[in-house]
Structures are given as C-alpha cells and as structure tokens.
Amino acid sequence: MAASMEVDDDEEDDWNPVVKPGVVLRPHVLQWNGTGPKEGQGDRDVLEADPLHDPEADDEDQKWVEDQLLQPDQSNVRSTDAVLNCPGCFTPVCYQCQRHERYSNQWRASDVRNCTVDRSIALSMAKDRTEDDPSKYYAVRCETCKADVGLLDMDGIFHLFHVLESLA
C-alpha cells in the first residue's frame, strides 16, 4: 500500500486518502462561471447548428414507413399497434401488427420482415402427440440472429410473442 493511504481492514474497498503536507487535492474544474452569455458578447457563445442533423428526417422516415410497409385497412387507414423487434439483436421483424385481445405480450400479423419460417417440423398445440390435431404451426425465427420470435399458423397468420415492442 502507498504510504499516503491508510486502509482499515474491515473496509478494504473504501478509499480513504490521508492528506499530508505536500499532497494537494484539486477539483477538476478550477473555476466555473454559471452565468450565461452577457449582453454585448454577441453570438460567440451560441452553438452552430449541427450540419449532420436533419430536422425533417423523422417525418420523412415516418411517411416512408407508412407508404412502403403499412397496408391500408378497409377505411384506407394505415396504422399499427406497434413495431416489433427481435429480442436478441433488435432487428425489426414486424412493422404492422395487432395486439392480442387477452394477452398483452402477444401480437398477430399478416407480414413479417427479416424472418425465416422453419417448415421442416410442424408444431402442434395438442398435449398428446398421438391425437390428430388439424392445426399446425411453424417456428418463425429472426433472420439475423436465429432467435425464435413466434409461430406461423396454417392460415398464414404470424403469432409473435417473443419480441420487443415499440409502441406506435
């Protein structure tokens, strides 16, 4: 241990410096003036606008998503309950979905993005595999990280339940 520090055996993780002659502890900010620009200083303290910031970008991106990714309903309204992302890599997997009526963490959609459907094994909700269950499901996985995000039913509806939601 350094000669300028004393450490109590009971409190090994506490730093307790001992200030002796010749040791000077100084703050990182030596002088701070909390007042703003004064009259007559002009614009020298005013920050310039960031040349990489586009204040219109969010509105343009929203319009592009509405035009390209959202399908209109019967009333010609393009809406969604949420944008869904993969929990493993945050890749967007669904831009237009509907929240389940009973289970708030489940969603259904007719279209997904950045996903693959594993049709090699049909899954069933039946408890007994010997039982003939006509409804079959297929695993839906994130294309980027291969995380399971939901199921595809025989009617072509995606049931997404292992996702992160961004409410629209």
Automatic annotation (TrEMBL):
Residues 30-62 are annotated as: Disordered. It comes from the Eukaryota. This is E2F-associated phosphoprotein (EAPP). Residues 40-55 have a biased composition (Basic and acidic residues). InterPro entries: E2F-assoc_phosphoprotein (IPR019370). It comes from Durusdinium trenchii.
